[in-house]
Amino acid sequence: MERLQKFIADTGYTSRRKAEELIKKGQVMVNGNLVCELGVKVSDNDIVTINGVTLVKNNSKEYYLLNKPREVICSVSDDKKRKTVVDLIDTKSRIYPVGRLDYDTTGLIILTNDGEFANMLMHPKNKISKTYIAKIDGLLTEEDFQKLRKGILIDKQVLTIDHFKVKSQDKIKKTSLVEVTIHEGRNHIIRKLFEHLGYDVKKLTRTKVGNISLGTLKSGEYRKLTNNEIKSIKKLAS
């Protein structure tokens, strides 16, 4: 027996966190009975359906790293018929993105049908680091650099910067290229960080998650994660 949300995640339908949301919204049925509360346990013999779709466990786990282009949605589907990250990967398995990148943000996104692995990456307690390269409108001042070192209060919560580096500055165009590493996953957090300091983010790319790097993958390209990369995430989360 296992918790319903874990069962759902293991089928590759969605992540465990999203599964919990679906349960609370009353979209999950077990053996024909509606389940609206967390804590219910099921076995492989139980029939679990979500919005009329019967879930089947997939024991074949798949893990992909995609260099997400701009104007692609981090979702398994989109009601506006926009292209999603799942559309870019050639597989018959039901995979989904782990976390998300904004519509205009590019770079590293991991997709999988392994619910436990997805939970390891997303759970705040594991503090998996994420590195971004941002092009901002303006020349970063020493005062703002010191603020970043101390942490920035955003939405009533302090954002701690694990690493920060100014890679280059164009004094003619008055732009800066900066590298930021954090371990949080709040929505739009990097854009909010620089907006708080008075800078506009022109371009944003995620280059690294944990020990997994984007490398030389071009926009729209993807590859399978190596066994060592998968193990590295599990080690960070242990």
What is shown here, in short?
The chain has helices at 4-10, 16-24, 115-122, 142-150, 189-197, 227-237, and strands spanning 2-3, 28-30, 33-35, 41-42, 48-50, 53-54, 63-68, 96-97, 106-112, 130-137, 152-154, 157-159, 163-170, 175-182, 200-209, 212-213, 222-224.
Describe the overall structure:
The protein is an alpha+beta fold and 238 residues long. It has 3 domains: 2-54, Structural Genomics Hypothetical 15.5 Kd Protein In mrcA-pckA Intergenic Region, Chain A, CATH 3.10.290; 63-125 and 212-237, 2-Layer Sandwich (Alpha-Beta Plaits), CATH 3.30.70; 129-209, Alpha-Beta Plaits. 22% of the residues lie in helices and 32% in strands. The protein has helices spanning 4-10, 16-24, 115-122, 142-150, 189-197, 227-237; strands at 2-3, 28-30, 33-35, 41-42, 48-50, 53-54, 63-68, 96-97, 106-112, 130-137, 152-154, 157-159, 163-170, 175-182, 200-209, 212-213, 222-224. The strands form 4 sheets. Strands 7, 8, 9, 10, 13, 14, 15, 16 and 17 form a 9-stranded mixed β-sheet that branches. Strands 3-2-5-6 form a 4-stranded antiparallel β-sheet. A two-stranded antiparallel sheet has the order 1-4. Strand 5 (48-50) and strand 6 (53-54) form a beta hairpin. Helix 1 packs across helix 2. The longest helix has 11 residues, at 227-237. The chain starts with a strand and ends with a helix.
